[in-house]
Every structure is written in structure tokens, then in C-alpha cells.
Amino acid sequence: MTQKTTRKILVVTDLDSSLLDEDYGYAGAMAALGELREHGIPLVLNSSKTYAELRHLAQELEQCYAVVAENGGLVAVHRESVIAPVGEADAFGYIAQPAGMSRKEILRYAHALRESEGYDFEGFSDWTVEQVIEHTGLSVASAELSMERGTTEPILWHGSEEEWGRFISAMQSHGVKALRGGRFIHLMGPVDKVQGMQKITELYQQAEPHTEWTVVAVGDSANDKAMLEAADIAVVIPHADGPRVDPSNSHRIDAVHPGSKGWGEAVSKIIKNF
């Protein structure tokens, strides 16, 4: 007798200006988060934020057992999750799998070029905690977590566009690419949010082979475009001046409001209509 196929939703979300508001709160999404929990719908955080930051937020939400950190540079699944891969858990209970180039290697190339060519940029590795707070608006504790980077380096570029072209061309020759996010340019290895999302989806598919998963991706910026296009359903969160990303997806939902309020309304609508 053939086992009946069941259908489930998997929600993969960006954080800044999507699930999180500018003040890093998520009050507008509380009702939808409760609905996800009630229906047993998995929530995956997929962000440029560090593993330490995502781990902290996942613990606070108490419903997220898988995170994709630093734009796909690391995938971590809690050992209590049904999709936990084989491996040794860290002190926080997560089995982490790095995927990108190490930050140490990225910095070696970037700083060598800055020193030899005089390129004008600065990044997290140059800043104190106080300076990170100044550039991000984070609290002291959150800023410290954001500095625990393993596979990416966020920078601010102060040089000309012509200089940028020469710099990134040289970095690309070493296997480093640049991704423009909401606040920073992220120097990183050959990974992205899509690969992280696909890895988590594969783990869920392996754990429940008779389940047909509908992947819902939520994002707001160019950094999320590929992820939104690779998902079954794309939810675009606008900014105050309108949407800043235009993904090609036949199943696209444009949230009405920015931040957590728009996130909450759109996700609730998907749950009700699924």
C-alpha cells in the first residue's frame, strides 16, 4: 500500500527589514509566529547575520531549530530537530556545517590589496564594539554577537566606482565575491542564501520523504532576490518608499506594510490559504 503524500509549508526568512523592524523588534509578526508554532510549520532564519546572532534569536523565538548564517556561509541545525544531520553538536546544541571560505582568508586578500593599492574601505574587522554600534544601531550585546564572524566581512566602501571595479576584480580572482546588502557590502566566498535554503529543504525532505514541501521565502532586498526566485512562494516585504527587490516568481506575494507587520500579515494569509 502506497503511503499518502502530505503537504507542508517550510518558511525561510530574511531578518533585517523583513521579520525584524528597524529597531530589531518583531512585534508585528507575533500572531503569525504563533500560528506557525500552532500548525507545526518549520521556521528557518536565513540572514547575513552571524551564527551567534541567529542562535540567540532562535533561542528567543523558541520555535526555530535551523539557521543559515552569513549569507549561506554556515548552516546549523539543533540536535533536537528531526532534521539534525550526523555530527557532533557544539556547546549550544547545534551541529554546524561551514560552507563558505573562511573570513580569515577573505581578510588576508582584502587587507593586502588595501595596503598595496590604497583602496579606501573599512569593515567589522577594523572596528571596536562601539564603532559597530555606531554603524548598525545594535545594542552592546548584539554588536558583540555580530562581530563573531566566520565566513564573511561586511565593509563600507569609500573609494570611487572605478577603484571598486579594480578591487572586486582582484578579489574575484581569489574566489571572493561581493554582495550588497541593506547597510553593507559583504565580502564572501562562493556561497549564497539559496544554497543554505536548499540544504535545509533537503534535510526536511530526507526526514519526511512522503511529504511534499512548499518552500516560502521572505525577503526585502537585492540580497534576497535569488532566494525569493528559488522558492515556491516569494513574499516581498516593502520599505517605506516601496519594494526594493523585484524577483521573478509566478507565486509572488507583495506585503502591504514594511517590516514585521507586513511579514505577519503575509505569512498569516499563506497559512490560511494553504
Describe this structure in words.
- The chain has 274 residues and is α/β, with parallel strands linked by helices.
- The chain folds into two domains: 6-99 and 192-273, HAD superfamily/HAD-like (Rossmann fold, 3-Layer(aba) Sandwich), CATH 3.40.50; 103-188, Threonyl-tRNA Synthetase, Chain A, domain 2 (2-Layer Sandwich), CATH 3.30.980.
- It has an eight-stranded mixed β-sheet with strand order 5-4-3-2-1-10-11-12, sandwiched between helices. A four-stranded antiparallel β-sheet has the order 6-7-9-8, covered by helices on one side.
- It is globular.
- The chain is 36% helix and 22% strand.
- The protein has helices at residues 30-39, 51-61, 103-117, 129-136, 140-146, 161-172, 193-207, 225-230, 259-273, and strands at 6-13, 43-46, 66-69, 74-78, 94-98, 121-123, 152-157, 177-180, 185-188, 211-219, 233-236, 252-254.
- Helix 2 (51-61) links the parallel strand 2 (43-46) and strand 3 (66-69).
- Helix 1 (30-39) runs parallel beside helix 9.
- It starts with 5 loop residues before the first strand and ends with a helix.
- The longest helix is centred in the middle third of the chain and has 15 residues, at 103-117.
